[in-house]
Design a protein that fits this description.
With 156 residues, the chain is of the alpha+beta class. Helices cover 28% and strands 41% of the residues. The chain has a 7-stranded antiparallel β-sheet.
Amino acid sequence: MPRALITENEIHAAPSLVWRVLTDFPMFPEWNPFIREAHGDLRVGGKLRLSFTTPAGIGMKATATLVQVEPDYELRWIGSLLVPLLMDIEHFFIVEPLSPNKTRFVHGETFGGMLVPVFIRMLQSEVMGAYRAMNQALKQRAEILAAGGRPEPSLP
């Protein structure tokens, strides 16, 4: 039975600006506390190489395949842990316009496979904390840019 983890926040910036920050992979090490690195082709079928860090400092590396790339609206990828039957993962970001300069950012993941019951508590605590930290960092960076500012690197 698949499980889902979903977070969201409002960002006072245009959806196109939020999308630009979200998909500017080379800048992730400067501001993103969760997805520390992302490399790959931003197109459906493109492969991503990702490096994650949770709030407790747990680091993970993964490869994923982009299944949805809708500019200014949705980015979605799939991956698995070891083999697909053990844990399938679908990660998504939705950039939903609320007004010309206000965006709802929805960030989540669905998990399926035999290992989900083993890892669900860690997923609920560590992963949700990581999502919230990323959402807040994205909000901060996009709102500074929307106000005409130049964001300082927020991470070492």
